[in-house]
Design goal:
The protein contains 11 helices and 12 strands. The chain has one domain: P-loop containing nucleotide triphosphate hydrolases (Rossmann fold, 3-Layer(aba) Sandwich).
Length: about 325
């Protein structure tokens, strides 16, 4: 896939993540779970790239592997031209001030023994040499930016609502002023009434701080609202990728078409045929040969069972991996 752009901040090439399966008293490796398989895409400066797909398709693992929170099995990740896989631990530590992670569940990602001041000041102490006055100003400025006040600095996570906890998680990720963020289902653990507030906050901060972002979600309506481009994952692989509106209006891969057919429409006069996928998602420890989707695809032919399709450009910046594109 020739998707590399001159203005790309992040380039992911053939990323693979396999988890060993161990059995017996000696815990010998008897196989591997293919969590991420040959994933490639790029993220441009100030772009929001969304990864979507069913639960267990490898979205979160991809995001973690990009930042080396999980060590990839293979492939390359280039950030601002640097191959992250070749960086030493110290070099990677310094790089982390510029690339951060927003976790899915604020209830478990915030240390309950640390108050807001410690949660927000700790990253600054690690990455910068600031005076106490500068430290206080940076923390208070970030707190105001997320819609909270400095008088809440001495409170602990259990004293906040779910939405406030996620605001603090976002502030902790952005306190070092990174240029790139991975947001892993940042609103899925929140009440529906709070989700829109957090999404709007993230969009405002993304534009104000000129962030590039990978936004991981299974909610296709949210993805269309927040992202510039999208990658559709199935069984650890990218099935389709492109500009969000292009993919939503002209889905090329049968899996993308099935996902979008299940999205409720806000127009009561609009009627669309819901495409029902037969069967279950294959076991990633024993993935099917050929196309990963062929066991559930209505277009499946012998070629699909034998040869893995490559991402093919079907329109400018619009790619799909299918032998029978329409």
């Amino acid at each position: 896939m020739s998707e590399k752009k001159q203005d790309a901040l992040l380039n992911v090439r053939d990323l693979r993540v396999y988890f060993p399966i161990r059995k017996g008293l000696m815990k010998r490796v008897v196989g591997h779970v293919h969590a991420v398989e040959n994933v490639s895409f790029s993220v441009r400066a100030r772009e929001v790239f969304a990864l979507v797909g069913e639960s267990g398709c490898g979205k979160s693992t991809t995001g973690s592997a990009i930042l080396r929170l999980i060590e990839p099995t293979g492939g390359q990740v280039f950030f601002k031209g640097d191959d992250l896989g070749k960086l030493t631990d110290e070099e990677m530590r310094l790089k982390r001030r510029d690339m951060q992670f927003i976790f899915q569940n604020p209830y478990s990602s915030l240390n309950p023994r640390m108050n807001v001041w410690k949660l927000l000041s700790e990253p600054l102490k690690v990455h910068f040499n600031l005076t106490p006055q500068e430290l206080r100003e940076r923390v208070e400025d970030m707190l105001r930016l997320i819609g909270m006040t400095p008088d809440q600095l001495e409170r602990y996570p259990h004293q906040f609502s779910g939405g406030q906890k996620q605001r603090i998680s976002i502030a902790r990720a952005l306190i070092t002023h990174p240029s790139f963020v991975v947001a892993d289902e940042p609103v899925s653990a929140l009440d529906v009434s709070i989700q829109a507030q957090i999404l709007n906050l993230m969009m405002e901060l993304q534009q104000e701080m000129e962030l590039s972002m990978i936004f991981i979600s299974h909610d296709l309506n949210v993805v269309r609202h927040i992202s510039n481009s999208v990658g559709v994952m199935y069984l650890g692989s990218i099935m389709e990728t492109g500009d969000t509106e292009e993919v939503y209006r002209h889905p090329a891969h049968p899996y993308t078409q099935a996902l979008l057919s299940a999205v409720p429409s806000h127009d009561p006069l609009h009627k669309s045929r819901h495409i029902v996928l037969e069967g279950d998602v294959p076991n990633p420890a024993s993935p099917p040969s050929g196309c990963p989707f062929h066991t559930r695809c209505g277009r499946c032919t012998k070629e699909c069972t034998e040869t893995r399709p490559q991402l093919t450009e079907i329109a400018p910046r619009h790619f799909a991996a299918c032998h029978h594109l329409k």
